[in-house]
Automatic annotation (TrEMBL):
Protein name, per record: Ubiquitin-like domain-containing protein
Organism: Megaselia scalaris
High-level lineage: Eukaryota, Metazoa, Ecdysozoa, Arthropoda, Hexapoda
Pfam families recorded: TECR_N
Gene Ontology CC annotation, any one: endoplasmic reticulum
Protein keywords: Endoplasmic reticulum, Lipid biosynthesis, Lipid metabolism, Membrane, Oxidoreductase, Transmembrane, Transmembrane helix
Length: 231
């Protein structure tokens, strides 16, 4: 069948695209750009049934959407895209690198340190926790996380990395500063215990990441595992 492709922004026609009933939205994007080269690349396309309608799911098919021969669909250019996994890896690798770099007390941050006191136990514990936390995040991104969308706007890379990298630099600067004064060690140990307990609870849950289409945020859906014991 042939369907009419229109620009969602100004309702101008692009042309016709030949598809079948079983063509998924994901495959439809590829077919549109292949058959109508002047359209944006597949990863930049958003498919809608109405010019101002919502984006349809990529798992939907032409048949399930009720599109018939001669029907209309609207496409919107989402702009430059980047993979979700790439963004996650960048925003998690940054804090790991930044923190460990500041942990070495580089000259660019602290200047000459001839008479500075060495790093205390609190600073070492903080570095270990930071390293463990973001190493775990990186491994989860590579081996565990599943993403409902393959790409997101490229601008998110800069927003997310600015947040993670910037706050890491701020926190690490103070904790590793030669003039940093550690709180009572009982407070430090209590915080460490809470940190370890957090990971114990986190590991008892199945974590799935999904994209919130309307707010462009990450929704963390926690599905508790049910444990049973046999006497």
């Amino acid at each position: 069948m042939d369907i009419e492709i229109y620009n969602a922004k100004n309702s101008k026609p692009y042309g016709k695209c030949h598809v079948t009933d079983d063509t998924t939205v994901s495959d439809l994007k590829i077919a549109i750009h292949k058959q109508i080269p002047q359209t944006p690349k597949a990863e930049r396309l958003s498919i809608r049934l109405e010019a101002r309608g919502k984006q349809v799911k990529e798992s939907e098919t032409v048949k399930s959407l009720g599109i018939q021969n001669g029907g209309k669909i609207y496409i919107k250019d989402l702009g430059p895209q980047i993979g979700w996994k790439t963004v996650f890896l960048a925003e998690y690798a940054g804090p790991l690198i930044v923190y460990l770099w500041v942990y070495t007390r580089p000259y660019v941050f602290y200047g000459a340190l001839e008479n500075a006191k060495p790093l205390g136990l609190t600073a070492h514990i903080a570095a270990a926790c930071y390293t463990f936390h973001y190493s775990k995040r990186l491994l989860e991104t590579i081996f565990v996380h599943r993403f409902s969308h393959s790409t997101m706007p490229l601008s998110n890379l800069f927003k997310n990395c600015s947040y993670y990298w910037g706050f890491t630099a701020y926190v690490s600067y103070h904790i590793n500063h030669p003039l940093y004064t550690s709180p009572c060690m009982w407070t430090v140990y209590a915080g460490l215990a809470g940190f370890l307990k957090h990971f114990q609870l986190w590991n008892s849950k199945e974590v799935l990441l999904r994209a919130d289409k309307t707010r462009n945020r990450y929704l963390i859906i926690l599905k508790l595992k049910i444990y049973s014991s046999v006497n």
